[in-house]
Structure formats: structure tokens, C-alpha cells
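anyone seen this seq b4? input:
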Amino acid sequence: MTETILIVEDEQDLVEILEYNLGREGYVTRSALDGATALAELEQKPLPDLVLLDLMLPDINGTEICKRIRADESTRDIPVLMLTAKGEEIDRVVGFEVGADDYLVKPFSVRELLLRIKAILRRAGPETMGATPARQQDHPLGRQHKGMGQVAQKAQDVRRGVDPAPGPRDGSMRDEVLAA
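predicted toks r here
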């Protein structure tokens, strides 16, 4: 299965570098040079498996785009890696607070970016990869027992601020993970 990455970046030269390097690693890329185009791309099927998102775009800033990704039922589980020149602690904190899965400051190592993408996609598993049951079934993790899906759902709930287990030691998957 080939993962699709949406590159949301207003610097055309950087988009070309990213497309080249991601293509060499076997990823399919789509790109958007502004926020409006990015939002339109997120309405196209198949959905991307990951979004590389710049914060400083000419029309809609990346923080707002990330908020919209997380607010939309069809896109909320797509991993977002913010790729930006804004490297202050407050910028990173805000990025994570609005729903980024990772944050990488420019200038960056392409090798590090590729490793972060692989790690994010590995952690995301089949629940987000294309968001279709057919693609989930094709994914090696998509055939595992349903307990794995429960763990992933609980992790997503925690990320959204929903307490997945109402009380301590209630026998939930959370307790099993914490006990391990």
C-alpha cells in the first residue's frame, strides 16, 4: 500500500524538494500552496494519510487549518506534522494544542523528516490510513484482533481530551496498558 502525503507549503522550491524526497521513499504526494487549496484537497478522495503543514501561509494560517482538520469528522484522524520556521516554545505548544501530531522547525534535515513521517504513520495504523475499510483490510495491522482498535481509539480519545476510563482500575484497556 502506498501512503499519500498532502504537502501544504507556500514555498514552491521547498514543495518540489519534499515531493522529490517523499517520492523516492515511495510516497504519493499532493500539494497545496495556500490554505484554501489545502482545505479543498482535504475534501478530495482518497484522503491523504498524513498532512505536512506550514504555519505561515498567505491566506489561512496553518493553526486554523489544523483546527479545521481536527473539527471535521472525515479528517480528524489524519496525522498532521507541522513544518515551519516558527520555532519558539510557544509556537510548538500552540501547534500541539490545536492537534498537531509532530512539529519540525525549518531548516530541517530531510532524513529526520522522513523518519518522523514513518514513525507517525506507523503509530497512526490503519484507522487513519485513507479512512476506508478496504484500505484498512489491506494494511497488515488492519487484520489484527479488535483489541488493537480499542487501544487506538482510547489513544485518540486521550488526544481529544476525552477520559477513556471513568474510574481507576475499572478493567479497561487503559489499565492493561498502564500495568504493562
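The two ends are 32 Å apart (CA to CA). The chain has two domains: 4-134, 145-179. kinda curious what u guys think
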